[in-house]
Amino acid sequence: MITADGWLDWAARAPGPLDKCYTAVNRGIGYVPHSAVGFYGGWASRLFSGERRADGRYTAYAAASVHGWVAYDGSVTQHYPLSASCWASGSEYPNTNFIAFENEGGFDPEDELLTPAQVQANARIIRELAAWRGWPEIRRPHDDGDTAARLYEHHECVRWGSAPTACPSRRIPWDSILAALGEGTSPAPAPQPAPGRTVIVHLETGVDAVMDIDEYAQGVLPYEMGSGWPVEALKAQAVAAKSYALAAGAVFSDTRSQVYGPLRYPDTDAAVEAVRGVYLAKEGQIVMPFYFGHCNGRTRSPAQAGWNAASNRPYLKGVECACGNTAYFGHGIGMCQRGAQTMALQGSSFDEILRHFYTGIEILGLDSGSGPILTPANATVYVVVEGDTLLSIAVRFGLDWGAIYTPNRHLISDPNVLPVGCQLVIPRPATEEGQPDVYVVQPGDTLFALSRRWGCGVDDIAAANGLGSETLIRVGQRLRKP
Ligand SMILES: [Zn+2]
Ligand SMILES: [Zn+2]
Fold this sequence. Notes:
Strand order of the largest sheet: 1-4-3-5-2
CATH topology of the largest domain: Lysozyme-like
CATH superfamily of the largest domain: Peptidoglycan recognition protein-like
Strand content: 5-15%
Bound molecules: zinc ion
Order of helices and strands: EEHEEHEHHEEHHEHEEEEHHEEHHEEHHE
Shape: globular
Number of strands: 17
Oligomer: single chain
Helix content: 25-40%
Largest sheet: 5 strands, mixed
């Protein structure tokens, strides 16, 4: 489906620079698939490049934009809303009237045909565009002068003044795309979503790296919080850092965004691992949180910190903080890192910390759309493998498939197609007392921390589980609560 503001609700989003568009609204009367002549990294480097000529305009290399990207596996990343007029097709008429997507590949050989998954993805884009803009029919041009068709290749845009080009180099199997459109099965065949979320990181070397969000977070935590902090504070920091980057889409690797570097530590890595798939959100959309060193006993809203009132957000309010400092270190908006440390030392979990500092925040990956809040104590994580279906996973865990679908809806665009590698939160059925009696050990857990959380002694846990004098526990181990 296409949202009211022009985004494919099933595609990943990596918004491109806004000044790489015409200001005119795109009329969306047709579709032009391009050949990327390469892979995503190369394309993203151009799209996000700020390289300019002496006269201040973008260089030919940097002057590139397109609505989105169709990867070999059929996953789609959208850079601009479909109402935007990108620079893809070389002259103003097609650029302000047609929607354009790059198709991965075509580097060697140039005429490499789209993969079946790319065919399906292009067909899905065309089908949804046609419904969105109310095209009466979908067809290719009859001849070189036909300007009333809906589907053109880039080189065919010479009829509107575009420069001659080989693009898309005979890569588009129109018969297959039109056949896929003709099938028009309902629901539309879903391309496989990318297994993870990615962020574009402008590295100091000048290279723009497309990075897995968890890999990125592991390079941020050592700098933005540091090894040796309490586990729950590190987990809260990881969730905040990931949400910040995903809300931004592209980030600098220094203090302009968040510091990213080569240091890695076992405890910061484990904290990131423990909150995989968990993000901060409002109404289901990942939002940009802020955080800072410490406050003076109370955090503040953007307006209270002297920022433009337009930067106020309902989740960025001033709240009490137990960090024990008397002056601000940092802007004071959002999560006080020393306050997070204090709360963690006093036994708060990372989600309690986040809910304290971000008023009314939703925690994607923990909160379900309805029903009980899923915390690590009453849920487990399952990684989807080839061949899994919601039903097969439900049977394995002894649950109704809806019980798995509901808390993971934000990860699943089509309940019939589970993205391989996707991490599903699986609720564990409560016992008769309404409390889960078995706990699966998470990264960062210790017997001591669990005894604090459960309000019992280390010895009680050891006795209930026959641990003897063994106090080391391992991730994934199942412990009976005493
Ligand atoms: Zn092209
Ligand atoms: Zn504080």
